[in-house]
UniProtKB/TrEMBL annotation:
It is a multi-pass membrane protein. It comes from Gracilibacillus boraciitolerans JCM 21714. Pfam families: DAGK_prokar. The lineage of its organism: Bacteria, Bacillati, Bacillota, Bacilli, Bacillales. Substrate binds at E70. GO terms for biological process: phospholipid biosynthetic process. It is found in: Cell membrane. This is Diacylglycerol kinase. One of its GO terms (cellular component) is plasma membrane. The chain crosses the membrane at residues 56-76, 97-119. The keyword Hydrolase does not apply.
Amino acid sequence: MASDYRGKNKLHFGFRYALSGLKVAILTERNIKIHFIAMTIVCIMGFIVGLTNLEWAILCLAIGAVISMEMMNTALERALDYVEPKHQPAVGIAKDISAGAVLVTAIIAMVIACLFFYLNCWHKEW
Ligand SMILES: Nc1ncnc2c1ncn2[C@@H]1O[C@H](COP(=O)(O)OP(=O)(O)OP(=O)(O)O)[C@@H](O)[C@H]1O
């Protein structure tokens, strides 16, 4: 389909490939499924405690950052597995750093979510 992609429908095909990547990531990656479940729980809790518009915007950015980072981590892992299937310390370090980036983003998102829930539960005039 390379010729189609290079043709006038480039934008359409680019979007289709991106959606297909998202679908593969959700279906095949356990961690991404966990992130989506966590996102659903956080959103339900957000509705329950009544987050403000600004809090929702910040939370959406944090959730988007975690899921995007996990997808980039998956892409890197797959590319490295293809390029270097054998055990190679440099590959291990690259994968660990990439996984560390996901962890940092996920911790920050969790802190933001906990802070908003705390502020809305204990410091709100009901
Ligand atoms: N080719 C390799 N050479 C050296 N170490 C590797 C290699 N592949 C994986 N590792 C080590 O094993 C760890 C797990 O790698 P793997 O590719 O299995 O990721 P994963 O467990 O599927 O990660 P995730 O849970 O994020 O999908 C890496 O973080 C790295 O430390």
